[in-house]
Amino acid sequence: MDGVPDFTQSAVEPGENFQYHFPFNNAGTFWYHSHYKAWEQVARGLYGPLVVYDHDTNENDACSDIMIIADDWLLNSDEQIDANSFGNIGHWSHGGRLGNTLSINGKFKPAIRISSNGPVRLRFLIAANARILNFELSGGVIMKLICVNGSPCKSFDTNRITLGLVNELTC
Question: What residues make up the domain containing 120?
Answer without folding.
Answer: 61-170
